[in-house]
Design the sequence.
């Protein structure tokens, strides 16, 4: 209720047409903020978002991947390795829980296992370096058994429908705690100050 009052006070001394333009810009800005807040932080298209099985967990898929074939799930993880196949690019991921911004946690102890993700595009494996974090919508396609060190491991397999790679700069900006720059800067929790 205070917003219209602020707009009216700011418009004192302006012509009617100028005040109308200012009000139109104000309304447009509010709409853009509202739309931005309502959309997915990783840009999941609405057509996929509405088909996501929000009750399905990675543990469910890990336990019985064949039971969930064709279901869409939102997952995140850390890239372990990638290789090109005829069907696309296969990425081995260490599953990591997502936070409220749909960003994977950096605490590897919270992982519940590994998975193979097939990206149908022809991505260069050199651009998918170990340690990169991703969030993706995947369609459960089953499982395959491969060696992990000397042990057989059943990897759930998923086909990527939407893919978001977190840039290292984004991750550094969001980490909490104090930090000190090489040339005298310092900060806490993503906010910093230079000297």
Sequence:
């Amino acid at each position: 209720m205070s917003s219209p009052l602020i707009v009216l006070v700011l418009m004192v001394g302006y012509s009617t047409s100028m005040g109308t333009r200012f009000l139109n810009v104000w309304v447009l800005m509010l709409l853009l903020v509202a739309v931005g807040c309502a959309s997915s932080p990783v840009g999941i298209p609405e057509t996929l978002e509405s088909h996501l099985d929000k009750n399905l967990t990675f543990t469910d898929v890990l336990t019985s991947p064949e039971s969930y074939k064709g279901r869409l799930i939102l997952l995140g993880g850390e890239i372990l390795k990638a290789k090109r196949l005829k069907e696309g690019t296969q990425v081995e991921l260490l599953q990591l829980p997502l936070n409220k911004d749909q960003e994977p946690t950096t605490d590897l102890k919270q992982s519940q296992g590994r998975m193979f993700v097939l990206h149908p595009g022809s991505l260069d494996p050199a651009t998918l370096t170990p340690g990169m974090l991703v969030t993706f919508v995947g369609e459960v396609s089953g499982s395959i058994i491969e060696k992990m060190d000397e042990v057989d491991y059943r990897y759930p397999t998923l086909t990527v429908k939407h893919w978001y790679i977190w840039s290292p700069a984004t991750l550094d900006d969001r980490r909490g705690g104090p930090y000190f720059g090489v040339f005298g800067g310092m900060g806490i929790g993503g906010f910093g100050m230079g000297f």
Observations:
- Residues 46-170 form a domain with the OB fold (Dihydrolipoamide Acetyltransferase, E2P) fold (CATH 2.40.50.140).
- The first helix runs from residue 2 to 10.
- Residues 33 and 109 are 36 Å apart (CA to CA).
